[in-house]
Amino acid sequence: MSRLTNLAVLMLLAGCSGTLGEIDAGHDDGLAPGTGNGQHDAGVAEPRPDGSTPGTSDGGGQQSDGSVPGPESDAGPPVDACPVGPNGTLDVVSVAVTGPEGAAPSKGDELTVHVTLRNEGKDGIAADLTVLLDSFRFDDFRSIPLASTQLTACPGESTVSLRGGPFLSDPITNRQFALGSGDYAISGVVLNRAGAVVTDSEFSGAAFNLATNNVLLVPVLYNQGYFEQLEGDFASPEAYLEHAFTRRNEIFTPDNPADPDGNGQFELYEGGFDQMMGVRHVFKAFIGFEGTFDSGEEWCYGAMDYASQVLGLKARWGGGGTRNDQHGFDYVIALSSNKSGGVAWSPFDVQVSGFIDRDVDRQQIIAVHESGHVFGSPHCDELGNGEGSNLQGYVMCAGEKHGRYPESFVWHTESRKTMSSRWN
Ligand SMILES: [Zn+2]
Q1: How far is the CA of 309 from the centre of ligand 1 (A)?
Q2: How far is the CA of 186 from the centre of ligand 1 (A)?
Q3: pLDDT at residue 86 above 50?
Q4: pLDDT at residue 388 above 80?
Q5: What does the pLDDT look like over 23-40, one tens digit per residue?
Q6: Which positions ≥6 away from 24 have C-beta within 8 Å?
Q7: What ipTM was reported for this prediction?
Q8: Are 289 and 223 in contact (CB under 8 A)?
Q9: How close is the Cα of 322 to the center of ligand 1, in Å?
Q10: How many angstroms is it from 5 CA to the middle of ligand 1?
Q11: Fold type of domain 46-210
């Protein structure tokens, strides 16, 4: 009998947290390069006949969007908006940042940046524009490209809107970042006019805040073998985990606490783990977690080291809640076909989910089980007869033995009581 309990060991090893060595930061040795810096909308800056500054008086919700979504080709900027010529200037007047639908932005959002430009000449100016972002909370988060576009700025004042996030990459250092909560500023707007590059950092509206919310920004480290062997097709590793964390869960509460597996009530969470915990996982996958390790502890260290490597952290991934030195990410999930079962290390905010069989249901219950540990839950075996023999239906024991599985992942209420999100 295969028991997840035996394979997924919550390790609370004394004396480890003070001895974590530094590792090299910012490796660029061919592993998992970053994938883009947000959305690139080719567009024409739209003249604003009234000369008004967007985003400062109307709440940011109704202003016109100067960007014209176009094909992601190298066709270059449209040139029919106004004649492009040598007699023009380009100055950034103001910026304004909003979340989706013009709302105030918060953690994990894709951001929209409205950049208002002034051209005091009589010709249109063609330029590439890149918006740079600083975080006042997260280390290394300086002048990170948020979004870029090509534009033609016609004479007068015009506004172009760009979108980027929640995951960003520095193309120079290959460090990876996430838009966690905290204070930010647009630190510069890079204007490239036919190779003449100027960074404008004098404009209004640069500072903004991302409010905290229930979003969890989770790097997913994986090896290709995991998805090659998995008996199911998903559009991406992110889609696979979104499915795992939003499929139906239930919480079982026994009528008599002394009989933890007796009669009781089931509370349904159609939105799965995320709804049950009041969180929203937002995943960013990084391929290349190819290692194999001899012990659960080594697996956790391996995932922590690879997280540091691929994210470009200065030190080994450490966890303990959202830290200022982990580039805005909250906790680490690693997926490996080389791992039997799974392992989690709650104090360091890391879990590794491997395989028991290859079916989607079982592998996904391993993944949520291991996150159950990261959220603070021990196994639930001790709730039963002390040997776990009558609680194997519940997620933090094994989970696949419940009569409602696989339609539901059933959690025992005593497990749920121990779990919380400590990230912000
Ligand atoms: Zn476990």
Answers
A1: 26
A2: 43
A3: yes
A4: no
A5: 222 222 222 223 333 333
A6: none
A7: 1.00
A8: yes
A9: 23
A10: 5
A11: Immunoglobulin-like (2.60.40)
